[in-house]
Amino acid sequence: MTEVLVTVVILSIGLLGIAGLQATALRNNHSAYLRTQATLLSYDIADRMRANMSAVNGGSYNTPAAASVASCSTVAGCSSDQMAQNDAWQWRQEVASLLPKGVGIVCLDSSPDDGTGVAAPACSGGGSIYVIKIWWDDDRSGNLKRFVMSFQP
Length: 153
Description:
- The protein is α+β, with helices and mostly antiparallel strands and 153 residues long.
- It has three helices and three strands.
- Strand 2 and strand 3 (144-151) form a beta hairpin.
- The radius of gyration is 22 Å and the shape is elongated.
């Protein structure tokens, strides 16, 4: 009888260990998924910018004012500056919907690996390198993770 009891205790400890490994694997898998979403979102805004080079050259994508421009969705169209505003608005909506507490900014920055959030993104405005900075709450603890991608269109 004692042998059976010892066996059950050892088996239950082993099963708890397996459950803990499974929980850790799920948490890390979800974190990797969110990093992938941040990467795809940064490529999305970079492609939008490459498609609107006149606005890029005019500086319209350097911390653009995000606004929905209805005429950009019509046959009549909109100006390149309005398209930059509309792109920023759509992109920020996607960042907020795909990432928990997700926020992002696009700006000219000579030192891309700084900033603590959209309230203080630390965009220097210098140079010709655009930086895409995205923050989100990876583990729902309130500590924001940051993804940074710099590129020259």
